[in-house]
Specification:
8-stranded mixed β-sheet; 13 strands; 24% helix; Metallo-beta-lactamase, Chain A
């Protein structure tokens, strides 16, 4: 079995090599990224996600989607809460009643405000297939879909309910062109957008390494860790599919951060999210 550190070293080698290829060939890299506000979810007991800590304490989860421009291509990472939630201002119970989901502005409206239509998006990936990350998947049937094979089989197979997945939010993607992955993947072959396999929260969870022209590299971590405190203490929620894989994936990403100088952007950490510029502004 390959250790998490070894996997991270392999990924770093891919990044370094592809960066050299890009420099020689003049390939177009990432030019900018929009951070879209794809809902907020609140709980009355955050200890479900932070085991043994803050029992009975409320917390609000940020929930972002990320639209990345690479030359003339658009790559969308996650699609957030379903836009129908925006029609219910008081929020919609989800996650077995543990969360209340809200959507102040629909994803489609936010895309329209920056001049992008769903059919313009040629590349689509989800950190995983829980409803707060793939709630608007059905809009993007023109895109190539990048998924870990295990996640795809769980989401589109007959036992989707066992994994807490709901095909009503993404079932239209069955007809998309799909690249089934079994590990890390260099999307544009220039090291600027790399899918990083980080299983544990779900069977085929993945994170995203993005090299921005001015900000530098960032890792969009999905639900690798829900909050900064959980990341630092290596806390793994009991609801994760595989706690041991979760810890191994955290160590893999920690090595990646150390060796690339990348920032870790934790999707549900509202304090961090509030410091990040959101659409219609963009980040370079």
């Amino acid at each position: 079995m390959v250790s998490p550190t070894a996997r991270a070293i392999c990924l770093l080698a891919v990044i370094a090599l592809s960066g050299c290829v890009s420099a020689r060939s003049g390939s177009t890299a990432v030019t900018r990224m929009f951070v879209l506000q794809c809902g907020e979810n609140s709980t009355n007991d955050v200890s479900v996600w932070s085991p043994g800590v803050d029992v009975g304490q409320p917390r609000v989860f940020s929930n972002n989607c990320y639209l990345i421009q690479h030359g003339s291509d658009w790559f969308l990472w996650d699609t957030g809460n379903n836009d129908a939630v925006a029609m219910v201002p008081e929020g919609v119970p989800t996650a077995g009643g543990r969360l209340t989901a809200r959507m102040p502005k629909t994803l489609i409206r936010q895309l329209q405000e920056i001049g992008v239509q769903p059919t313009d998006i040629g590349h689509l990936a989800f950190s995983h297939m829980h409803g707060d990350h793939c709630g608007n998947g059905n809009y993007f049937t023109a895109a190539t879909l990048y998924m870990q094979r295990l996640e795809y089989d769980a989401a589109f197979g007959p036992e989707f309910a066992r994994f807490n997945y709901n095909p009503a939010t993404y079932g239209n993607l069955r007809t998309n062109r799909v690249l089934l992955l079994s590990g890390d993947f260099n999307v544009f072959r220039d090291g600027s957008v790399i899918i990083v396999a980080t299983p544990g929260h779900t069977v085929g969870h993945q994170s995203l390494f993005v090299r921005l022209p001015r900000t530098g590299p960032v890792v969009l971590s999905g639900d690798l860790a829900h909050f900064r405190e959980n990341w630092e203490a290596r806390r793994v929620p009991a609801i994760n599919y595989d706690p041991e894989q979760s810890l191994a994936s955290m160590e893999k990403v920690a090595t990646l951060l150390q060796n690339t100088g990348a920032q870790l952007w934790i999707n549900h950490d509202k304090a961090q999210s509030d410091r990040i510029q959101h659409a219609p502004q963009w980040i370079e």
